[in-house]
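B., you asked whether I could sanity-check this one before it goes into the benchmark set. Here's the sequence:
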Amino acid sequence: MKEYFSHDYHARADEKIIKMLRGMGPGGYGIYWMIIEMLYEGNGTITKDYELIAYDLRVQTECVKMVCEDFLLFQVNDTTISS
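And here's what the prediction gave me:
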């Protein structure tokens, strides 16, 4: 059974998203939404393990770190990522 969560259909116009798109292109946008899905599955929080996230998403670790840290899209602390 499929589960759905609502999201802002106009997210791509957000200033932080535009900066991420400018820096990383649409691949960064895909990584962003996959992390959002992971956060939904994790009840709003996931473990800050960029290598594990990158492996799960089949992308480079540095790309995950950039999406999470460089554009202020997520709340990141020493052990967790949240939105």
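One thing to flag: The chain has four helices and three strands. Otherwise nothing jumped out at me.
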